[in-house]
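Hey, I was hoping to borrow your eyes for a little while. No rush at all, and the record is pasted right below:
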Amino acid sequence: MTKAELVSKIASKAELTKAEAAKALDATIEAVKEALKKGDKVTLVGFGSFYVSKRKARKGRNPRTGQEIKIPATKVPKFTAGKSLKEAVK
């Protein structure tokens, strides 16, 4: 499903115009990004949780040359599905 398809689905289910649905979706995505940037966890009960995970620095290999390289520590966004989402997918 693309973002445009999701906006159409939101518009029809919530009885909004596509423009209003697009604004609502963009605002939701932006709010989640801001919370994760601050290090907060975003929990949508029944749907799931977005959170930030830390990856330690590690050694890797350049696949082209085989040379060992250092991969720096980084933060990555993660998502864990909630119970009702897991059951809906079964």
In short: The chain has two domains: 1-39, 41-90. The CA atoms of residues 33 and 77 lie 9 Å apart. The first strand starts at residue 42 and ends at 44. The two ends are 19 Å apart (CA to CA).
